[in-house]
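All the exercises in this workshop are built on plain-text protein records. A record pairs a protein's sequence with a compact description of its fold. Read left to right, the backbone structure tokens trace the chain's path through space. Once this layout is familiar, the rest of the handout is easier to follow. Here is such a record, shown just as it appears in the course material:
>
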Amino acid sequence: MAMYRYYALIEKEKLDNTGCYIISFPDLENVFSDAETMQDAVQNAHDVLGSMLSVMEEDGDEIPQPSPADKLKEQVKEGGSLILVEVETEHYTQAS
């Protein structure tokens, strides 16, 4: 198990008269989450990243190298945030 650092893109979306934060990882396909508050969005970003990378390790999938922040900044829309998420996959490994 290893330590990983990836940037998460957090954007506030308006859905049915309510706000919602959408979390994605530009370097990782199909790794998404959402939350009602920014604080929950940051926590969910850690949880989804740790869980998905743990599964990828267990399955022997290739894990892509993370991009530097300056390469990803152009993807941040107005009001969005780019945050560095650091996880250690051993905390997310499923018990046998």
Notes: Residues 21 and 38 are 7 Å apart (CA to CA). The longest helix spans residues 38-59. The chain is about 25% helix and 35% strand.
